[in-house]
């Protein structure tokens, strides 16, 4: 594998293609005091076919002169009022063990002039896709629980082991309904397929809906709190801005299981995101004499993204839904400022892709933790 190098991002060759080489960078250190970029548009892989259901006029406004789906045998793939219930016939239902869920109001009014709510559920590859509209007067954990059961029964898929959701304000509904069904709720912004799908649905479904309210703000806004001081067990000892070609990142992610390393990957092919294998992906290398415990603790945090805060001369790590930590600080100089700016620019140029690597020291031959990350903007709904 190609070795990692510093800014200005120059990839150096290494004799052993399976080794990673890290080196420390002067004047950069972990914090002693506390203190996003939008990716390029990438199309979501569309379903080969969708089984749609008609939407009740009592909850969602529809033009009276258009025929309902119940009156037609055709499949209305582009009907903005249609609800989706789809399972890829080529996928084994038993292989889908995790769902991604959003349950929120939409900028669409029903016949009563009230915002409708929508349940959107998918898996990480969008092999499972389900949407259902609800009037705002039936929103509770029981409604959500029953809807989750209906997904399993309608599509013939087993209940998942985990359900991820990215909105803090629906934690009560999502957690309660999941636990009642024996499912582990996971608050996490690593709902990448769901976030990209919601962005696509805004452009292709919501704004075309007859009840769409232009300029309407989301009822349930996403939190972006001030970053807190890093917990002691997450401290590293040295770190450096680094980079790898995309092909090397893929190789590192694919070897996680065989090496029993901590971390997580992103299957960009499943998400319909294309990137050149030679494209350089920026990352952060962290060294610690307690690398394995550090990687284990980090692995339980649902790591979302890392951001270089130029104004505060620090790195901010986002985990879970709305938790942000000052991950590292550095002495503000012209050189360090330019390096941080270059790193953020590199992240933006490849659509928000970046990574975190943890190892025992920056000269080690391999890492004990590797996370491939995608910094996505909040969904427009």
TrEMBL record:
Signal peptide extent: none
Low complexity composition-biased segments: 53-68
Stored Pfam families: Tab2-like_C, Tab2-like_N
Region (Disordered): 36-74
Residues in RNA-binding protein Tab2-like N-terminal domain copies: 99-201
GO MF, one annotated term: RNA binding
Biased composition (Polar residues): 36-52
Residue intervals of the RNA-binding protein Tab2/Atab2 C-terminal domain: 218-373
UniProt cross-references to InterPro entries, sorted A to Z: Tab2-like, Tab2-like_C, Tab2-like_N
PANTHER family linked to this entry: PROTEIN TAB2 HOMOLOG, CHLOROPLASTIC, PTHR34556
Name listed for the protein in its UniProt record: Protein TAB2 homolog, chloroplastic
Taxonomic source organism: Stephania cephalantha
